[in-house]
Amino acid sequence: MNTEPLGIDERFWERLKYRGAPIKQHVLGDLPDSGAPLLSDRLWQSFKQRCAAEGNLVPLLISQLEPQECNPGMFRRRGPRKPRGTNPFEDLPLPQRLKAEAEFRRLCERWTGNLPAWRRAVLVGVARRLTLHPPSSAWGKRMRRIKGGVHCQRKYRKQGCHPLVEFNQAMAKRQKVHLTLEIAKDPAEDARKRLGITSEQMRGVPRIAPILECVEGGVESVIEALRFSQEDESARAFLQKYDSVPFADLEYLSIDEIVVAAGVDPKRLLTLAVDWMVKISVMKTQIQLYGSLPRVTGALVKNALADKGIRDRRLFFQITGFLPTPHPRGSVAVPPTTMARKTEAQPEARPAGSPRVLNQPWLRTLPGKLG
Prior knowledge:
- It is a single chain.
- The chain is mainly alpha-helical.
- Among the domains are: 10-65, no CATH class; 94-132; 187-285, no CATH class; 306-364, no CATH class.
- 60% of the residues lie in helices and 1% in strands.
- Helix 11 packs across helix 14 (266-304) and helix 12 (233-244) crosses helix 13.
- The protein is elongated, with a radius of gyration of 52 Å.
C-alpha cells in the first residue's frame, strides 16, 4: 500500500530542491562518495518514510518556500510554460490568431499520421513565425539559393570530385607566383625606370641632396623657395620634372636623380636655392621687425615721458632727427633731409654762436636763452 499522500510521488522527490540543490543530495551528504549503493538507497527510503509518517509536511514546506526551478537545459524559457490543452496562439490579437490557427491546421494536414508531440510544437512555432513575420520575395530567393547550393554539393559528392579543390589549388599557385614577383621587385629601381634614368647615369654626378637636407624643413622648404625663381630656365625645368613625378615615387627618388632627369646643372640649382633661401629669410626678418615696430615705438615713447626717461628721450630725438647721431645708418634709415644727416655730412666744429647751430630744431623746444 502506498503511504505517500496525493501529489507526493517519485517524480516530486526527484525535483524537490533545497538551497538550490536536490534534497536527496542534502540527505546523502554525510555518506562518502564510495559508499555502497544499497546503503544510500536504504537511507533515502528511510527519509521518505519518516516524512510520510509526519504527513510530508517538510517536503511540502520546502516546495512552497524554496524556489523550485527546473533545469533549463541548453536554452532558457522566455516565459512560463503554458498548461497542457491551452490554445498556443491565445496571446495574439484576434486577426493574427485566426490566421495562425489556419496556418497551423494546414501544416498539421501535411503531417497527418506522423504528428508526435515534438513535431506539433515545432509546427506551432512555424505557424507563429509565418503569421508574425510573413516571408518576402527576398526570403524566397535566399531559400532557393540555399537549396541550389545543397543540390550542387550533393551532386559533387555523388560524382566523387569537387571543383573547389582545383580552384583553390590554382589560386594558391597564382598567389605564390605574385608574392615571389613582388619580393623580387625593387621599388626604387621601378621608380627610376618610370623617371627615365638608370643607376649608371648617377655615377660622377655631384650630390646636392645631403646639403639641402640640412635646411630646416628639409627638401620641401627648398622646393618652395625654388618656386620663387621660376624665371630662371634651370629652376623651371627642375620644377616641371619634380611636379610630374608621382607622389608614391618621391619616397624612393632623391633630388639628385630628379636633377639628372631634368637635365639641370646641380651647381646652378644649388646656387638658386641658396639665394632664395637667403632672400626669404631676410623677408621674414623684415616682416617680423616692421610688424613689431609700432609696439616698440609705443614702449619707447611711454618710457621717454617718464621722469627718469632721459636716455629714452635722447634716443627718441636721435631717431627722429632732432639730435645728431654718430651711429651709421641702420635698418630704420634717417631721412636725408634731417638735421642729423647734415650734421654727419659736416662734422667740422662751429662756434657756439653760429647761426646754423642756433637754428637747429631741437633748440626751439628749449626755454629762452638763460642769462
